Amino acid sequence: MSFNRTHRGFATIWAVLLLNIECLVILTYLNFYQQELQNYRQLEQIYTQKIISIDK
Prior knowledge:
Blueprint: H1 2-55
């Protein structure tokens, strides 16, 4: 009986660890995505300024 409890405990620990790793991966991806989005916004501003300066 105690073996089942121990086994269940290890399974729970593994599940929590895997969930934490999954969350870290998702957060890392979101951080990367946010940085890429900022890069695109900066590029958009640069191109908008160039278009405006050409129009003048």
